[in-house]
Amino acid sequence: MEAPGAGRGARKQMTRERLLDAALTLMSGGNSFPSLSLREVTREAGVVPTAFYRHFHDMDELGLALVEECGLTLRRLLREVRKAGVPTTDIIRHSVAIYLQYVRAHPRHFRTAASERNGGSPAMRQAIRNEVGHFVREMAQDLRLIGYRSDLPTEALEMICSLVINTMLNAASDILDLPADQPQLTRELEENFISQIRLVFLGAEQWRADPDVRHKK
User: Fold this and answer.
1) From the centroid of its chain, how far is CA 36?
2) Could you tell me if 112 and 63 are in contact, meaning their C-beta atoms sit under 8 angstroms apart?
3) CB neighbour class for 182 (10 Å; exposed up to 12, middle 13-18, buried from 19)
């Protein structure tokens, strides 16, 4: 028999998901996040405005939740690939495959991130920058653990990772614009994407950090 609190918890989680989904639906229709009002979101979600405040303090907090919801799962998936102990070239290919699949499975999240990354509200831009920072730091930590460029200080390793992450983010719009009925175009984009990331790592192999900061690891 279900505990009384369990049912309330499930309903509360469902309401939260409906609010997040409503915001994504409205933005998919051409609205920018700053233009959304709380009443529009609650009306789309089918809940009363007062219910909103049981989940979020304001619209900025809802925007932060949208970014985090997408980022947490993707970060976990990519970390699993990097920790699998496969060669670097395979890590790149497997990571790209996972990323393409994830972007296509969550088109509204990535279209929102693409539109809000440079022109959205200050809160959304900061949320996206924070999430990118998490990706960069986690990737740098994982590369450090497998011994990649152990001679480099953390700042230089994170710079390399930021180039990779930004390449991935910049590719999201191209991935979403791919016609579903043209698999050859998907394969070509995937190979081009892999080549871009490999090029970053080829350049990274030649990178030599400033000796003055080399002690900062």
Assistant:
1) 22
2) no
3) exposed
The torsion angle over the Cα atoms of residues 47, 48, 51 and 56, rounded to 10 degrees, is: 80
- Alpha carbon 214 to chain centroid distance? 30
pLDDT digits (tens, 9 = 90+) for 101-130: 899 988 888 888 888 887 777 888 888 889
Alpha-carbon torsion, ordered 138, 144, 146, 150, to 10 deg: 160
Cα(81)–Cα(85) distance, integer angstroms: 8
Separation CA 27–CA 36 (nearest Å)? 8
Instruction: Supply the pTM of this predicted model.
Output: 0.79
Helices (H), 120-182: 122-145, 154-176
8 Å CB contact between 128 and 113: yes
